[in-house]
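In response to the reviewer comment on reproducibility (Comment 2.3), we provide here a single inverse folding case reported in full, input and output, so that an independent group could reproduce the run without further information from us. The structure tokens appear first.
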């Protein structure tokens, strides 16, 4: 039985052990909104299942090799001469930290 994406995201957020500033500053509702944004906005280039498209895949196994500081920089500042825009004018640093933690720990079910 296929579950709606929203249900999977709620389960994923509740099971995800996040630590640090992002967890303290961001409430459950904002975390859910960020995960929705990840799948909708980021998914438009990285693929709706985040397995790649115009942009590279955002799969946990591949991202484990990347330092958090690198991922924060890419999300914050974008990648010049590519379709990757900067998000630091829209997202707060704690929100970017949350996204970095989430995509590195994202459960497989959340990608469907």
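Designed residues, in position order:
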């Amino acid at each position: 039985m296929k579950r709606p994406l929203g249900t999977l995201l709620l389960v994923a957020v509740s099971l995800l052990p996040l630590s640090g500033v992002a967890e303290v500053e961001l409430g459950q509702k904002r975390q859910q909104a960020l995960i929705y944004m990840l799948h909708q906005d980021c998914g438009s280039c990285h693929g709706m299942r985040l397995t790649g498209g115009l942009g590279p895949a955002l799969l946990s196994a591949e991202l484990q090799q990347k330092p958090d500081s690198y991922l924060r920089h890419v999300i914050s500042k974008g990648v010049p001469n590519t379709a990757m825009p900067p998000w630091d004018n829209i997202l707060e640093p704690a929100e970017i930290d949350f996204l970095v933690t989430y995509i590195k720990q994202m459960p497989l079910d959340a990608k469907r």
